[in-house]
Amino acid sequence: MARWAWLLLIVCLSPTATALCPLMCQCSSNYTAVCSSLNLTSLSSGAFQFSSNLLVLRLERNFLSSLSANVFSTLTNLKRLDLDENTLKDLPESLFTSLHELQILYLNDNSLTTLPGNVFRTLENLVILWLHNNKIESLPSEIFDSQKNLQTLSLMKNALRKLDKEWFKHLGSLEFLALSNNQLVSIEEDTFSALVSLRNLSLHHNQIISIQDHAFSKLPKLEILWLYDNRLSEITDNIFNGATPIKSLSLHNNQLKKMSSKAFESLTSLEQIYLDGNLLTSLDSKLLQSQNKLRMLELQDNKLTSVNIELLKPLVSLRTFNLSGNPLLCDCTLWDAWLWWSARALNPLATCQLPEISIGVSIRQQLQNLVCNSERTGRVQPAVSQTRVQAESSCGVRNLTVGCLIILIIISAIMIGSFIYIIGHRKHRVQEMLLPLESNSI
């Protein structure tokens, strides 16, 4: 099948010109050749020598394990090349030399472990580069030196253990960078400092245990930062220092036990924060003092027993608040926080875990029955304590039982009285009927 690709060509007509289409590929009038899912195992060096007008070439879902250095040499007008889902293990350094117009390159789902330093050197117009789901462990420092127009770069689902800031030093136009699902353990301060246009950075599903201070401070357009599913145990004062533009921050499913009171001080644009699935036992009352734009706060599945009202007061824009899965103590220490979120029609979806008598009871059901003193010391007014509520409930049942017994007694008395009256009335009538008979007999 592979040898047919260069032995024969068929003609594909377009409205404006005649282009030659490789055999067995499907070509369209917009100069697109679809050669996917053809079980191709190799391509000869002349496979596309008569297809110089092609703008899009799709070779995904084949079995290509290697490519000759000049296989694409005639495709000087090509703008998109798709090599996804093959078995490529390496690439010749001059493979893309002639593709000066290339804008989109897909190399996902192959078996690449590294790349030659100059393999992308001539691709100065490249805008989108996808390399995810390979086996890349490292890359040469100069690998992206020519990609000044690159906007999207995906290196997710590889085997990267360390990031080299040299990779990114010429990527001033990059807006989206995916580095998730690798084996990264740390983020250094200046790694991303050249990415002045970056808007979305994904670092989730790694093994990150440390992030240096100011690691995101030189990213003036960063809006979305995903750090979930890592191994972070603490967020210190300056990790997010200078990261003012961030709107969405995902830190869920880490091992966070401690958050500095100044951890989010610079994040004045924050609208969403995910802290769920961690080991937090408490939150400093000043943690969110700069977050007046925050709309979503996810705190479920931690180890929180209470929430300080001072933590919530700055959150004037909050619309979603989740506390479910926490061992909350539903006493007067939670009273002010409950009043705050109730006044804003927020539902934290949480239930009480303490005191024991309240396990599984919704926060609302428990706290709306409490009357706390002005100091909020946690002492409940005896008049409406949980013990009394239970006692009143018990008394209510007893009162109901006594009432029912009284009613039954009254009904029984009425029935007995009625029975006696009926019997007496009948006896009187019988006597009246017998009197005339007695008179006649006399």
From TrEMBL:
Alphabetic keyword roster: Leucine-rich repeat, Membrane, Repeat, Signal, Transmembrane, Transmembrane helix
GO cellular component terms, alphabetically, are: plasma membrane
TM regions (residue ranges):
400-423
Segment forming the signal sequence: 1-19
Question: Matching InterPro entries, A to Z?
Answer: Leu-rich_rpt, Leu-rich_rpt_typical-subtyp, LRR_dom_sf, LRR_TM_domain-containing
User: Does the keyword field hold Aminoacyl-tRNA synthetase?
Assistant: no
Q: What is this protein called?
A: LRRCT domain-containing protein
